[in-house]
UniProtKB/TrEMBL annotation:
InterPro entries: YARHG_dom, YARHG_sf
Claim: Nucleotide-binding is one of the keywords in the record: no
Keywords from the UniProt entry: Membrane, Transmembrane, Transmembrane helix
Protein origin, superkingdom: Archaea
The protein's name: YARHG domain-containing protein
Gene3D superfamilies documented for this protein: 1.20.58.1690
Transmembrane segments: 37-57
SMART domains per UniProt: YARHG
Domain YARHG, first and last residues per copy: 224-306
Pfam families: YARHG
Length: 320
């Protein structure tokens, strides 16, 4: 009896222990599930905080960069303005030497060359006499003190020496035959006497000299008046053009068109070709009548004229 009671008691204890174990097993997943959810929530909040911090840092860096860029642009603009203001040639007054050079600059200059011995080396197609008389008028207009001066008996050159209290200048005018820069050369040496203030006047003649008609207008190298009689039969070379005057170059280029009866707008060309027996105006003239060789030669001469800065390319010197 007693054994039966003990047995029943043990079974009851075993049943109770089994229920407690089942309850413990059933409760653990719930607790574990709750712990995992809390962990995820904490991680999510932490990640959100980190992202927020990163966004704020990035925004601050961008604002700082934009501010720096705007400041750099403003500084750059100020720098450019400052450079422009300091380097602008209009803001610099002319030196005494520059003023004197302006006064001596020949109005009909077609070329200017550098020379260590002279302050100005100018070329013009005006005659020596025309250029020399211009400077005589310049001296008279300003009442400058004129020293030794004079023209050569053959009119091939002349010289003037100006001896003012505030500057000195000597000037040579010479004939330059077949010079590619111009037929007359003007060399001017200036002593500005910088230590002395300007007292002289530097007025220029009101009427600028006009180029005289070239004597080459009536020149013709052969009986028919052609400068380059072969320009329709072979290619022209640089050697063919070297030594020709600007007027001869203009004639050589346009005689290619004249052969086919072109009527010229420039009076100097019309007067020249009208005197030649072979020249006849063709009312039906067209540049299509020119051969490829002739077109090539005309272009070659024109390019050479541009190279030497010919003053007669588009200039009509008139009929004389």
């Amino acid at each position: 009896m007693e054994e039966q009671i003990n047995k029943n008691k043990n079974e009851k204890i075993e049943i109770d222990n089994q229920k407690s174990s089942e309850d413990l097993v059933n409760r653990q997943p719930v607790k574990k599930s709750k712990d995992s959810l809390a962990t995820f929530i904490i991680l999510g909040v932490g990640l959100l905080i980190i992202l927020t911090i990163l966004v704020l840092i990035g925004s601050k860096l961008q604002n700082s960069k934009n501010s720096l860029t705007e400041k750099d642009i403003q500084n750059q603009d100020k720098t450019v303005i400052k450079i422009e203001e300091t380097e602008s040639p209009t803001s610099k007054p002319l030196t005494k030497e520059e003023i004197i050079k302006q006064a001596f600059y020949y109005p009909n200059t077609i070329s200017e060359q550098a020379d260590d011995d002279f302050d100005l080396v100018l070329y013009t197609n005006d005659s020596v006499t025309t250029a020399y008389k211009y400077y005589e008028e310049l001296v008279d207009l300003n009442n400058w003190e004129l020293g030794p001066s004079g023209m050569a008996t053959d009119k091939s050159g002349g010289f003037l020496y100006i001896a003012q209290a505030d500057f000195r200048a000597d000037l040579n005018v010479t004939n330059e035959v077949n010079n590619k820069y111009g037929s007359t050369k003007i060399e001017i040496r200036i002593d500005p006497k910088e230590e002395i203030a300007i007292t002289s006047t530097f007025n220029r003649p009101s009427v600028e000299p006009t180029p005289p008609m070239d004597t080459e207008l009536s020149q013709a190298p052969d009986e028919e008046g052609f400068i380059l009689p072969f320009s329709n039969s072979r290619s022209i070379t640089r050697e063919d053009l070297t030594g020709l005057t600007e007027w001869q170059l203009k004639i050589a280029r346009n005689e290619i068109y004249a052969r086919h009866g072109r009527e010229f707008v420039h009076q100097d060309l019309s007067c020249y070709f009208d005197k030649l027996p072979w020249y006849k105006i063709d009312p039906e003239y067209s540049e299509n009548k020119l051969s490829p060789l002739e077109i090539s030669n005309a272009t070659f001469i024109l390019n050479y004229e541009k190279e030497i800065n010919s003053s007669l390319i588009d200039k009509d010197t008139g009929c004389k």
